[in-house]
């Protein structure tokens, strides 16, 4: 749908003249171009950018003439004019991005384009200036769907690039020579199919191919007589196949002389086994090689050596499960700018020769969980900009880390670092510091004022740090870890007014469960887009951020009063409840109201009074909200609202707003949720553990809803009417243990299917089966997640706690129901999934590795004790104090 004439002309003028309107002498031409584009924003941006700074009116007239010759509603034809105006090499890069590199980091393609003489630096700049692509903050490439469609249409017409599996298979079977094909990528087809066999005879029919990427393909034959123009080769196979019969499908590269590697600049072998001899031969023969990626190798057990005078600039070695040591010859790769050893779990130390890599800019040792320290020679890496030691066992960073004067990013999350070096403040280029789950850190030293992103989570924090001097911060996360462990070592009253000095903040996340905040200044954070507060005891906000806020998430956030200045155009009022006291009563209601043209003369808003309530005798602070929120008019920017853990709230009422995501949970006194019909564009709605919720008004009016979850709302009425509901049939529905609403019978169902259940045309069999199981087996219960059944044995302790033991896992194909404990009386309002201590730090479990657990769990004698099982995929103990958290986090 196109823009109106006035808006379309304004958009075009901004791109063509950097003004809101065209100069007088270009007015007629501009209006003509706007008219021929039918007001389509993408076409206006692309064409306007292409004509920027072109003052020759004849050029403008030519563009207008071309546009007039294209069909009025043919969007791609109009965009094609911008493509045709590109240089040939710019077109090649545009087509490569459209077919292969949307959403991917540009680093590796740049090496290929440079070797192909496509002049990528200038070409990328041209494409960005013409609004044909964008480069995102993480260096990934983005392209609008319509430009993508244009690029793929051109590539298909010219026959230069292949990306569709069926097209590729058809071309491989054909005996004709495909001289026009320059690039080919075959993506995975699914785990159930055997790899496709591609022979050298088939590949010879693509004599001019420069980009070849094959996934789940076995290559057979001698490729030395072909692929002479190849610049990029990528062979990827299934990564997670362990040793055994299934490993026969893994491809093994026996010798590099069967491939023509002389002109290759990018080589990726993932899930392809090679020996140490082949590895060394590969680097030696590929003289122009710039990028080498080797992943999931099972054959290299020693320490491969590296040759001198290599052209290699980027080396990634990942998931080498048997690699125990890095050879000192790594120091010979003097042109390296990017070095990654990731998930090499046997590496315990780095060689001192690592300090000889004077050009190195990025060093990643991510998930090398046997690595305990960095060598002192690391301090010689004066060009180093990014250091990633996530998931290692290092306990400290170098004391003289300030010698790494170029450092801009440090990621030391999930390490055992106890204290940061005092010289950190001298890292004047440091912008990003990640310290998530660094649970030994007690306090922070002075940090560099250049920081723009800081993330710190530590269960050992003894105080909330004052970071008022970090005025360049854009993202700040501070947490004592209590959101996951439900306890904190910090018990204090603090003044967080200093947050107001961080005026550039875009994202703020605070989690402190026992901290009483005397005041918290947020109103000056005019650029704040995301605010997440967890567990803070906040008696008063002076103001809430207003102008840009899009995400507001409040978890167990408590306060008896929130003072805010009234808005001039709209007001949002959020009044909450409190428990009854002997001397007063407090209104138990939350209202979110937006009223056009509202003006108020009041300066601050206090608690509403009811008969018998004295404003001066406000009740003491308790574990839920009470007070009024007045949001400025820009609250209309809010797109996501999460309200979790407000046990006193009894009523929530909405009036019109543009909210997209709403999540309400742990509001155990909530009885009514109204006005949902005013949330016309809501796409996701979650109601969880609202035990007393009965009425949800307007839910059937949500015609854009695509995900609805209602769980453990035990008294809810039959709030859905299948006969009149406007909810789309494809909307995903998950309803469990919620009053008069029947269970879905599956983890997720569609609204179209659930309507049949509501109409009584489908009968759930799981209920009776579950009831029988629980009556016959009091000592354990069963839970199903996906295609796996878990049996948990329950054992009472002297203290009354009830740890559970995971005693069996059984796979069941096509399991359609979830069987869980029927005794709902054990779930009380005070229950918390993180209340009791878990005996294990559980990182992650891949479903593909669950069959290994079956073997361990079959040894019943071991089940009486914690079982430690280590692999690249998990570290876990199967004595669990919170089975719900275990399942929720991992399955």
Low-confidence stretches: 240-249, 559-634, 762-778, 780-789, 794-891
Main sheet: strands, sense, barrel? 23 strands, mixed
Return Rg in Å: 31 Å
The mean pLDDT is 75
Task: Give the overall silhouette.
Answer: globular
State the secondary-structure class. alpha/beta
Total strands: the figure is 41
Please report which band the strand proportion falls in: under 5%, 5-15%, 15-25%, 25-35%, 35-45% or over 45%.
15-25%
- Total of helices: 17
Portion in helices: 10-25%
Which terms would index this structure?
single chain, 23-stranded mixed β-sheet, globular, alpha/beta, four-stranded parallel β-sheet, 891 residues, 41 strands
Task: Describe the overall structure.
The structure is a single chain. By secondary structure, the chain is α/β, with parallel strands linked by helices. The strands form 8 sheets. The protein has a 23-stranded mixed beta sheet. The protein has a 4-stranded parallel beta sheet with strand order 26-28-30-32, with no helix packed on it. A 4-stranded antiparallel beta sheet has the order 36-37-38-41. Helix 1 (5-16) runs parallel beside helix 3 and helix 6 (88-101) crosses helix 8. The model is unreliable at 240-249, 559-634, 762-778, 780-789 and 794-891 (pLDDT under 50).
Topology:
Blueprint: H1 5-16, H2 27-36, H3 41-50, H4 57-69, H5 75-84, H6 88-101, H7 107-115, H8 120-129, E1 134-135, E2 141-142, H9 145-158, E3 161-162, H10 165-173, E4 183-186, E5 196-199, H11 200-203, E6 211-215, E7 217-220, E8 232-236, E9 251-252, E10 266-270, E11 272-273, H12 276-285, E12 291-295, E13 314-318, E14 338-342, E15 362-364, E16 386-388, E17 409-411, E18 432-435, E19 453-457, E20 475-479, H13 482-485, E21 492-496, E22 507-511, E23 515-520, E24 530-534, E25 551-555, E26 590-592, E27 640-644, E28 651-654, E29 661-665, E30 672-674, E31 684-688, E32 695-696, E33 707-711, E34 732-736, E35 749-750, H14 751-758, H15 766-776, E36 780-785, E37 788-794, E38 804-811, H16 850-857, E39 869-870, E40 875-876, E41 879-880, H17 883-890
Parallel strand pairs: 3-4, 4-6, 5-7, 6-8, 8-10, 9-11, 10-12, 12-13, 13-14, 14-15, 15-16, 16-17, 17-18, 18-19, 19-20, 20-22, 21-23, 22-24, 24-25, 25-27, 26-28, 27-29, 28-30, 29-31, 30-32, 31-33, 33-34
Antiparallel strand pairs: 1-2, 34-35, 36-37, 37-38, 38-41, 39-40
């Amino acid at each position: 749908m196109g823009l109106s004439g006035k808006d379309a002309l304004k958009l075009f003028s901004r791109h063509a003249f950097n003004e809101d309107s065209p100069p007088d002498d270009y007015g007629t031409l501009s209006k003509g171009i706007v008219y021929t584009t039918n007001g389509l924003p993408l076409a206006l941006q692309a064409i306007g950018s292409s004509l920027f700074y072109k003052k020759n009116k004849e050029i403008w007239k030519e563009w207008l003439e071309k546009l007039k010759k294209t069909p009025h509603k043919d969007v791609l034809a109009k965009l094609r004019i911008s493509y045709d105006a590109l240089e040939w090499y710019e077109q090649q890069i545009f087509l490569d991005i459209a077919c292969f590199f949307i959403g991917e980091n540009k680093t590796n393609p740049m090496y290929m384009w440079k070797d192909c003489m496509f002049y990528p630096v200038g070409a990328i700049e041209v494409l960005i200036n013409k609004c044909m692509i964008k480069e995102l903050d993480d260096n990934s490439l983005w392209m609008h769907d319509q430009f993508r469609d244009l690029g793929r249409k051109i590539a298909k017409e010219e026959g230069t690039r292949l990306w569709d599996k069926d097209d590729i298979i058809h071309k491989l079977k054909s005996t004709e020579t495909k001289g026009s094909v320059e690039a080919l990528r075959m993506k995975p087809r699914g785990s159930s199919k055997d790899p496709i066999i591609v022979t050298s005879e088939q590949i010879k029919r693509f004599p001019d191919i420069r980009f070849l990427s094959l996934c789940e393909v076995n290559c057979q034959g001698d490729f030395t007589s072909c692929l002479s123009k190849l610049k990029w080769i990528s062979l990827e196979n299934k990564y997670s196949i362990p040793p055994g019969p299934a490993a026969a499908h893994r491809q093994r590269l026996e010798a590099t002389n069967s491939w023509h590697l002389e002109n290759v600049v990018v080589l990726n072998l993932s899930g392809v086994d090679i020996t140490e001899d082949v590895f060394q031969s590969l680097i030696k023969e590929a003289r122009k090689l710039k990028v080498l990626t080797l992943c999931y190798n099972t054959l290299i057990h020693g320490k491969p050596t590296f040759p001198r005078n290599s052209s290699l600039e980027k080396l990634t070695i990942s998931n080498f499960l048997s690699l125990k040591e890095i050879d000192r010859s790594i120091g010979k790769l003097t042109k390296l700018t990017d070095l990654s050893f990731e998930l090499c779990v046997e590496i315990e130390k780095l060689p001192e020769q690592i300090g000889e890599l004077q050009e190195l800019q990025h060093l990643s040792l991510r998930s090398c969980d046997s690595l305990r320290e960095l060598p002192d020679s690391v301090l010689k890496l004066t060009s180093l900009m990014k250091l990633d030691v996530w998931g290692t066992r290092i306990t400290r960073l170098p004391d003289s880390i300030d010698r790494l004067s170029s450092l801009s990013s440090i990621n030391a999350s999930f390490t055992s670092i106890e204290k940061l070096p005092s010289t950190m403040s001298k890292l004047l280029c440091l912008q990003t510091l990640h310290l998530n789950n660094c649970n030994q850190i007690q306090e922070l030293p002075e940090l560099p004022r250049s920081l723009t992103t800081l993330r710190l989570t530590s269960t050992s924090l003894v105080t909330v740090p004052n970071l008022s001097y970090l005025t360049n911060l854009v993202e700040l996360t501070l947490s004592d870890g209590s959101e996951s462990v439900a306890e904190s070592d910090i018990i204090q009253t603090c003044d967080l007014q200093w947050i107001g000095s961080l005026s550039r903040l875009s994202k703020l996340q605070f989690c402190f469960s026992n901290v009483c905040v005397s005041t918290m200044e947020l109103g000056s954070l005019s650029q704040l887009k995301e605010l997440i507060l967890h567990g803070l005891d906040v008696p008063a906000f002076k103001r809430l951020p207003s102008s840009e806020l899009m995400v507001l998430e409040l978890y167990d956030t408590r306060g008896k009063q929130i003072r805010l200045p009234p808005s001039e155009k709209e007001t949002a009022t959020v009044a909450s409840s409190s428990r009854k006291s002997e001397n007063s009563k407090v209104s138990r209601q939350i209202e979110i109201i937006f009223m056009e043209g509202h003006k108020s003369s009041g300066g601050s808003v206090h608690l509403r009074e009811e008969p018998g309530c004295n404003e001066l005798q406000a009740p003491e602070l308790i574990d839920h909200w009470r007070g009024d929120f007045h949001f400025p008019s820009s609250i209309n920017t809010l797109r996501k609202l999460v309200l979790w853990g407000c046990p006193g709230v009894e009523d929530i009422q909405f009036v019109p707003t543009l909210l997209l995501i709403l999540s309400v949970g742990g509001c155990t006194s909530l009885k009514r949720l109204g006005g949902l019909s005013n949330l016309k564009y809501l796409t996701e709605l979650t109601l969880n553990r609202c035990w007393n919720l009965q009425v949800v008004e307007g839910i059937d009016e949500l015609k854009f809803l695509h995900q609805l979850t209602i769980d453990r709302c035990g008294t809810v009425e039959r709030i859905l009417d299948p006969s009149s509901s406007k909810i789309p049939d494809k909307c995903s529905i998950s309803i469990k243990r919620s009053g008069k609403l029947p269970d879905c019978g599956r983890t997720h169902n569609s609204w179209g299917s659930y309507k049949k259940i509501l109409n009584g045309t489908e009968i759930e069999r799981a209920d009776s089966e579950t009831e029988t199981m629980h009556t016959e087996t009091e000592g354990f219960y069963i839970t199903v997640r996906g295609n796996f059944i878990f049996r948990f044995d329950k054992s009472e302790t002297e203290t009354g706690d009830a740890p559970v033991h995971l005693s069996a896992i059984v796979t069941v194909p096509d399991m359609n129901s979830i069987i869980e404990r029927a005794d709902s009386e054990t779930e009380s309002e005070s229950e918390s999934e993180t209340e009791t201590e878990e005996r294990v730090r559980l990182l992650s479990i891949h479903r593909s590795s669950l069959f290994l657990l079956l073997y361990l769990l079959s040894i019943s004698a071991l089940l009486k004790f914690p079982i430690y099982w280590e692999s690249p995929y998990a570290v876990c103990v199967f004595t669990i104090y919170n089975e719900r958290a275990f399942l929720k986090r991992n399955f």
